[in-house]
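Database export, one record per block. Field names are fixed; values are copied verbatim from the stored entry.
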Amino acid sequence: MRKRLQRKLNRLEQRSHGREALDISSLVDVSFLLLIYFLVTSTLEPQEADLAMTMPGPPPIGENTYPVDNTRPLIEVSESGVIFFETEMLDSDLDRRQLLLLEDRLRTFSEASLLIDPTKGAGIDLDVADAVPGQRFIDVLNCLAEVGISDVRFIQ
C-alpha cells in the first residue's frame, strides 16, 4: 500500500514538475479594486438638454430655397468656434460651455419678439461652419433650448 502511494506521488510530481503554478486570485482582486476606483473617481458629463426643435419642411414648390426673412437674427459659428450674433462677436473661448453672452442676447430677442407678436415665437437662423467641433454646436443648441427658442432654421 505504501509503495502504491509512493508511485502515485512520484507520477504527480513528474506531471507537475514541468509546469509552474501562478496564483492569479490576488490579480483578480486588484483588477476589481482598480475598476471600482476608476468608476468612483470618474466624472460623467451632464445630460444634454432635451432639444425640442422644430425643423422646417421642404421649400415651397418651384423654389430651391426659403424666402429671406430679415426679422430672424443670424447666429454664426465660425470654424474656430467663435460665435457671432448678427455681426457682434460674443463667445470665443471653446473651454467655456456656458454661453452667457449669447444667452443674454437670445433672451432679449425672445422677449422683444413676444412683445411684437405674442402668437408667434422667436425664430433664429443658424449658420454653422463644417469644421466646428460638435460640442460647440451642442452648446449653442442648449443655449437656444434654455431660452425657449425652438424655431431654428439651419442655413449654409
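Remark 1: The first strand starts at residue 74 and ends at 77.
Remark 2: The chain has two domains: 2-41, 74-155.
End of record.
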